[in-house]
Amino acid sequence: MTGPEQPRRSGLRDPERSVRSLGAATLAIEAFVLLLAIQPIRVVGGDLGGPAIGAIVALAVAAVVLAGMMRRPWAWHAGTVLQGLLMLAGLLHWSLLVLGVIFALVWSYALHVRRVILG
């Protein structure tokens, strides 16, 4: 007979910091990819106008700001909203929807890892 079940340890020295770093890295990579995607989208898609470029830059800036604020508990929720906004930007150009779906899947994996490590 065993005593009360102990919480599963992750083996990390600072699990909260590790999870915050994962979220921040995910958002930073998203911002980088969004900014790098502007020119190829313009070349391939052809009709990427000012509002779409403005939306991409605004989303990239928001991702960088959120990456720096991952210590705040609401930043994870804001990151989820950011993924939805990126998919909504798909109304401006179809490739933004594709990027939104890809990064929503990556973000959902980061949320899953957060849930597994922190409980």
Observed structural traits:
4 helices, mainly alpha, about 120 residues, single chain
Q: What structural class results from the helix and strand content? A: mainly alpha
Can you write the helix and strand succession as a string? HHHH
Distance between the termini: 25 Å
Q: What's the number of extended β-strand segments?
A: 0
Strand content: under 5%
**Which geometry do the CA atoms define?**
elongated
**Average pLDDT, all residues:** 88
- Largest sheet, strands/sense/barrel: none
Q: What's the number of domains?
A: 1
Radius of gyration: 17 Å
- Please give the count of helices: 4
The low-confidence runs, each spanning 5 or more residues with pLDDT under 50, are: none
- Roughly how much helix do the residues carry, as a percent range? over 70%
Would you spell out the secondary-structure blueprint of this structure?
Layout: H1 15-45, H2 50-68, H3 74-88, H4 94-118
Helix pairs in contact: 1-2, 1-4, 2-3, 3-4
